[in-house]
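Hi F.,

I've been meaning to write this up properly since the lab meeting, where we talked about keeping a consistent format for the predictions we share between groups. The idea is simple: the sequence comes first, exactly as it goes in, then the structure tokens exactly as they come out, then a line or two of notes. No screenshots and no reformatting. I'm using this chain as the first example so we have something concrete to point to.
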Amino acid sequence: MENCKITELYNLDETIAKDLLSKYTYPWEVLAHINDFILELGATLPTDEYNKIGDDVWVHKTATVFESAYIHGPAIICKDAEVRHCAFIRGKAIVGEGAVVGNSTELKNVILFNKVQVPHYNYVGDSILGYKSHMGAGSITSNVKSDKKLIVIKNGTEKIETGIKKIGAMLGDNVEVGCGSVLNPGTVIGKNTNIYPLSSVRGVVPANSIYKNKNEIVEKNYASFIEMPKVEIKKPKVPFTQKEIKTLWKHKNETFINYILIQLYTGARITELLEVTLENINLKDRSIYIAKSKTPAGIRFIPIHNDILDFVKFSLENNKKYLFEKDKKPISYNYYIRHIFKPIMEFLKMDHTPHETRHTFISQCDRLELNDTAVSRIIGHSNNNITKHYTHKNIDDLIKVINKFKY
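Output, unedited:
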């Protein structure tokens, strides 16, 4: 059964379990080894990226896990994943990057590739779901036959005796399962296939098809898979206006508006500020150390402007570990965009991106004709106009420059 092989179903570059899957021919052969693989891999995950919680549960620091969710180990929750309200993870589960495990969804002995969505009342057990596969509300994988016999994978007249009692479903990349569908034990669905809502599916469903029932399976129109080059029209960067900045100050006591003001008075990238720990803040020297940046020039000290000094002190006194936190927990980039920055912009009737705070700062420095060398140091740019005899600017010099800055 060539179409049931791992190599035919999945892009292994889209899962943290690549090394495990690449050892086997068929996906159901992997199920018995998920537990041990998680334990081995979890012990090697970088501690600056993953938190270990409870017994053998590793959660990436950018993942969102609701307090009402339950996770039993071993389990790995990858970067930017979401485990929502009342999700129930029973163990032996890998939740891939950007995957969603939704309200009252139950997982057991599964691998969810990156970007998988099981968002509403799903049961997924003893299954492997490929990249960007999606299960509609109420759709489930049935993993045990009613007669409790060992599962046989059937594809027309072909059969494979698995010798396994529990196998759910093997979904290839980009599979869409309609609401209320039941995937019977040992179901294998090829890449890019759509399952009609309320379907009862069993056996092997070909790739690139539409399934209504076992007698109504049609091949998709391949033209629909042709992707025309996208012309990306970038929105021009628009600085905050003086009026908008005054409005932010007027609402400075509203939750999280102080974070936007810190952005506007440091010129730092939001990705940099989200990584700033309290240990990186030195009130004596009036500086913030940017320890992580996308460029070597970005590793730098930023002077703390007088106008935002109280905001920085507030974080030092009230936060647990980071300059920017919510409920004493770190904030991921996606969470900041979706749940902090955008809602504030909507509340204040403004239309900006976080990067436009940096653009605003740089534009204002130019208007004020502040020292180019100092400004380059503050914002973390390598300045091509600086001569080989580089003028060293210590933090005191940078503070003098930043305190000339104003809106």
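Notes:
The CA atoms of residues 49 and 283 lie 27 Å apart.
The longest strand covers residues 106-112.

If this format works for you, I'll send the rest the same way.

G.
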